[in-house]
Design a protein that fits this description.
The chain has one domain. 68% of the residues lie in helices and 0% in strands. The chain is built from 5 helices and no strands. The radius of gyration is 24 Å and the shape is elongated.
C-alpha cells in the first residue's frame, strides 16, 4: 500500500507538471506578449544610484568612522531595496503544494 501511494503521488506530480506544456504545443491558445524591461520607480532608482556610488567610491582616504558610517548606510539601503522586491510563485507550484498537503494530511 505504501508503494502504491508513492507511485500515485509521483503520477500526480508528473501530471501537474505537464499542464504548463499544453500551451507551448498549441500557440493559438496563448497570446504572444512582448515584455520590456520596466524602469524601476524613482525612489528605487535613487537607492540603487546611492549603492553604486558607495561601491565605486575610493574608501582608502576615509577614516574608520566614515567607513563604518558608509557600511551602515549601505546596509540600510539594501534592507530598503529588499523590502521593495516582491515574491513570485508559479501557479503550478502552488497547486502541487496544495495537492501534497491534501495527500499527506
Amino acid at each position: 500500500m505504501k508503494n502504491f501511494s508513492w507511485r500515485m503521488l509521483f503520477v500526480l506530480i508528473l501530471a501537474m507538471a505537464s499542464l504548463d506544456t499544453g500551451y507551448a504545443t498549441n500557440p493559438s491558445n496563448k497570446k504572444i506578449e512582448t515584455t520590456t524591461a520596466k524602469a524601476p520607480p524613482p525612489e528605487v532608482q535613487k537607492l540603487l544610484d546611492r549603492v553604486y556610488e558607495i561601491k565605486n567610491m575610493d574608501r582608502t582616504q576615509l577614516t574608520t568612522a566614515q567607513r563604518k558610517e558608509l557600511k551602515n548606510e549601505l546596509r540600510d539601503v539594501k534592507k530598503e531595496l529588499r523590502a521593495v522586491e516582491s515574491i513570485y510563485i508559479p501557479v503550478t507550484t502552488v497547486i502541487i503544494i496544495l495537492l501534497l498537503l491534501l495527500i499527506l494530511l
